[in-house]
Amino acid sequence: MIFIDFREQRCQIPDTLQKWGIQTSFDNLKVGDYVIPGSPIITVERKEVGDFIASKESGHLDSQLYELSTNCSNPWLIIVGDIREELMRRKKDIFSYISSLMGGGLKTSPDGFGSQIQIVQVNHDFEAALAIRALHEKVSSGDLVRLPLVNKAKYSKSDRVMYILSSFSNVGEVRAREALKTFGSLEAVFGACLHGTLDKAKGWGPKTVQSMVELLREEYK
Questions:
Q1: Over the stretch 204-221, which tens digit does the pLDDT of each residue have?
Q2: What string of DSSP letters covers 66-107?
Q3: Domain that holds residue 201
């Protein structure tokens, strides 16, 4: 499910998402244009490049970015349009535009979440829809952990055991170490997970255990 601000009905993104089979619901969103529920919750603000430049000049952009950084744990800004054409039309300097992008991503609010804003530039709304779809799929699948490639010649068996367990969504190295200290082996950890006793390990809550159970029981397709 993706929640969409009702003002986005005038662009093609909602229809495109629906054609891909993604459930959507229009709402009066206080912050952002698209909200993808999950852990983390993703908030996306879409701006056409002309609107971005005009908002920057008026100061409205700074207020919007403050609200995103303050109220959203994982905010994104997607800018849509041909920047070269827009800058030529407005007789604006490319460095000023790039500087505003860097500042938008670098600066954080001193209040609330204080999140850094991820900024993506695309040419068309279809590409923006692809970006939102990709975010939705990664959150839905739990594909949120980045790990280094395991070099078999470099890592010990214990290192590889830690790597395997920590690669599960929302587990990480700290929880993996606690589970292995408590149960002793991957086999014992997986057994405790399936039998509902994994929460004996420090830091293992029901949501983490449930996501791991679901993955262990997932049928390979």
A1: 888 888 888 888 888 887
A2: HHHHHH-SEEEEEEES-HHHHHHHHT--HHHHHHHHHHHHH-
A3: 157-217
